[in-house]
Amino acid sequence: MKLSVKLFAGFLLISLLFTAVAIVNFQLSEDVIDNTVWVSRSQIVVRNTASLQRNIIDMETGLRGFLLNGNEAFLLPYVQAKEQLPSLFAETRTFVSGSVEQTEKLNDIVRLQQRFENRYAEPLIALKRTDTLGAPAFGSSQQLDSLVLGEKILVDSIRAAFRDFNAYEYKVREERRERLGQSINTTRNVSTALTLLSVILGLWWAYYITRLITRRIMKMVNLAEEISRGDYKTKIVDTSRDELSQLSNSLNRMSATIDETFSELDRKNVELDQFAYVVSHDLKAPLRGIEVASRWVEEDMGTQLPPKVQEYLMMMRIRVHRMENLINGILALARIGRTSQIAEDVDVNVLLSEVADMLTPPDGFMIEVQENLPVLHTFRIQLQQVFSNLISNAIKYHDKREGLVRVRYHETDRFHVFSVSDDGPGIDPAYHDRIFVIFQTLQERDAVESTGVGLTIVKKIVEWQGGTIGVTSQPGQGATFTFTWPKDAEVVG
Hints:
Layout: H1 3-69, H2 76-95, H3 100-132, H4 140-228, H5 243-301, H6 307-335, E1 344-347, H7 348-359, E2 365-369, E3 375-378, H8 380-396, E4 403-411, E5 415-422, H9 454-464, E6 469-473, E7 479-486
Parallel strand pairs: 2-4
Antiparallel strand pairs: 1-3, 4-5, 5-7, 6-7
Helix pairs in contact: 1-2, 1-3, 1-4, 3-4, 4-5, 5-6, 7-8, 8-9
């Protein structure tokens, strides 16, 4: 399975779980809302029934007050309650319309109230008014007593009906309240369980994917480290068939290609070393033969050798030495960076003292070296070659019998900076780049013995170490060669 499919499947599963959580929460919240609405409606019903009871009691109280003293003012509560009862009954009937039992109980209360009003209250009021006006009614006393007794019995029945109605409402409300509590608890528990399940599954899937990717990336990192240590035959074993497998295969192909390339490079280097050795040996042998032959001619001919021929023979030997030096310079240039060397602590003051002794400058030339030069951890032979070439060139190309060569030093955050300056003829800026090209010299080869390789070797060594070299000069004002040597040069090579 591809890695992208695994990622998509994980995200899809988590999304489905969260969707299920949302749906379940929605359904449970609907149940909670429904129970909450019912409890609120039940509270309104109880409040309305209390108002109905109070109004009916007001009607009874007003009626009895009027029957006792005949004052119409006592009928005011009766009249007001009579006007309010229809709307209260209608509103209450709306709220209990979903319950058949409560609707029937409410209808019974309405019928009892209407019977109270039509069969007892209104006739009692009419009889009392007639008696108050002085119009005697036959049997009014007996009828009044009968109506009062019936009214009392009916009102008691209404009170009992209200008690029954409210008791049922309280019972149902308590059941609904319990259901509401259960709905809330169920919602909380289900939501918590599904959320925890989603989080745990999400974390597990993230851990699985992360571990899968990390483990395989670490294989690639290990492969890269093995390659950096020179083990080009290492491989990644990856049996999966996904995007990272393609990367693993690419890295394996890269490793194989690097192995083939370096193996070929090693073969070429061996062939090059053999070729250089053969060329050096085969070229130097005839050169030595030419030099020996020229000396034999001089020895055999002795004083009979014309001066012009002696000059030619001397020129021949000079050219032979130049050719031999040229061969040695080319070999030294080819070996830069290909021979293993060991970094060591190099005291630059001591190194320059050794270079000055080795060069043995002519009388009249002085090499002035700055004191307290640093101790570098680097490759001694390479730094020695750089200073040796620069100082020898300063002496070789000087145009006077006396001269001064100065070596100066300062440092930056990353580099040691050395400069070798002289008071010689200087170099025209137009030739500043040319002098670092192999076989390029600014003077005739017969005027100054030079192979044209020295500055090329210096430039290659400095750049191989990660530094730079440049020249500052004007004709007649001497020249200053400045090169930088990295402070971490010991890791180069």
